[in-house]
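FIELD: query
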Amino acid sequence: MRRRRFGIGSCFALLLLTSGVISCGGSYSAKNTTLYQPPAGSGGLAPSGATVLTNLQVHPWNTCGACGNDGGGGAVADYSWTADIASPSESGASTQFAIAATVPYTNGYFWQDNPIVQTQFAYLAYEFDVYLPNGMENLPQALEFECQQRLDGWTYNFGWQANYQENTWRIFNYGAKQWEDSGLTFQRFSPGTWHHIVAEYHNDASTKSVFHDALTVDGVRMPVNIRHDAVNTGAGNEFSDAVQLDSNLHPDPYRVYVDNMKITYK
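FIELD: result
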C-alpha cells in the first residue's frame, strides 16, 4: 500500500505532521538509543561527495485519501497542495500545503518518490524552510515530515513530528507503529516568517537499524542519537519523502508553506 506509516495520525491526531503518519502514543526508552558521531563538515552536516536533490517542494506530490489518519482509514479531510507560490516564498516558487477538515483529528498526507538508492545511508538529511501565516500558528494538531527507504525487503523510516498538544518533538517508531518522545522541546513556529529545518539520519543494513542523529531548527543543532529497528515488509526498493498536516479537535483549517526543500545523502 502506498501509505508509508499506515496513518501516523495521532491519538489525538497526534502530529503536526501526523497528517501523514500514524500512531499516537509511545514513550521514549533509553535502551533504544545509541551514540553516533556525525560526519565531519560544517556543523556536522553534509559530508563531501554527497548527492543533493534540490527544489523538491515544486516536484509533484502524491496524496492518498485517509491514509494519513490513525489506522489509515475513516473520514477523508479536504486537503491539497499548490506549487509555484510566489508569495510567501524565498526562492520564488514555494509550495502550499493546506487542510480544511470537517471531522476532528483527520489528516492530509503528501509524498514523493525519489530515485531509488540501492545502498544504506551513511548520511541522510531532509532539509526545508517552513512558514505559517499569521493567525494559523496555533491551529495544527501536529506537523510531520519523513524520509523512507525500502531496501532489500526492509523498510527504514525516518519520521519526525512537531506535536502542538504536548509541545514536544517526536520520532516515529515504524515497527511499533507509535510516536515516541525524542527528548526535545518543540518551540512553536512564530508566524509570518520562515523557519529552517534540517533532520539528519543514517541506517545500517547489516544490523537492520534506523538512526535519528540530530534535528536542527533555525540554526540550533540538537543531537538525539536514537535507534530503532527496521521492519521486514518484503516490499520492493524505494526512496521517498513526505509531509503531513494534522487537524485538531475543532477542526480548524490551516495552511503551511514549504520552500528550499532538499535531500542530501551519501
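FIELD: remark
Residues 5-44 have pLDDT under 50 and may be disordered.
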